[in-house]
Amino acid sequence: MAAYKETPRQKMISMMYLVLTAMLALNVSVEVLQAFVNVNESVENTNETLTQRIDDAYSNFEQQYLINEDKVRPSWKKAKEVQTITKDMLDYVENLKLEAIAYCEGKTIDEIKDIPLKNLKNKDNFDKPTNFYISQENAKKLKDKINNYSDELIKYVPEGKKDMIKHA
To answer: CA within 20 to 30 Å of 117's CA: 50, 109, 156, 162, which one?
Structure first.
């Protein structure tokens, strides 16, 4: 590496820097994972808020449907179909998440269902999640499911508005 011969002391200092860098890298990964846990908690709180708003909107929509069934029926039927398709997608993603956590923790879904992410023991194990999603092709299945979901929802968009939707 160097054009000159390092003394034993210089070699020892270089080795210590290498070990220190490796230790810092290990600590950073745990801290980064903790940041993801914090982000996940925020996303879950946001999801709860949005779910409540959506439920309120469906409740108001249902009231309008009960008041004037003939006028609202076509839209109500489409809204219920979208609600069913979305519930199926959300259930699939939640179940896949629980399967991945159970696989990584070496437990059953029932055992890990109520454990908060911050209390999981194998958060820093990168091999098991990679194996779960890549080797078992769960990532491909998820991607296909998301694409199918997107295609299904586009069917409900009026013709003049479809050009506003971006496809990945």
So the answer is: 50
Q: Cα(16)–Cα(55) distance, rounded to whole angstroms?
A: 58
Q: How far apart are CA 127 and CA 115, in angstroms?
A: 21
> pTM for the complete prediction?
0.72
- Written as six digits, the tokens of 107 are 């437990």
Euclidean distance between CA atoms 93 and 87, whole angstroms: 10
Q: Are 59 and 44 in contact (CB under 8 A)?
A: no
The most distant pair of C-alpha atoms in the chain lies apart, rounded to whole Å, by 90
Torsion on CA atoms 118, 121, 124, 126, rounded to nearest 10: -120
Residue type, 68: N
> Mean pLDDT highest for which of 114-118, 122-126, 153-157?
153-157
Question: What is the C-alpha to C-alpha distance for residues 104 and 75, in angstroms, rounded to an integer?
Answer: 43
Other C-beta atoms closer than 10 Å to the C-beta of 132 total: 19
pLDDT tens by residue, 40-90? 788 888 989 999 999 999 999 999 999 999 999 999 999 999 999 999 999
> What value does the mean pLDDT take over residues 1-25?
72
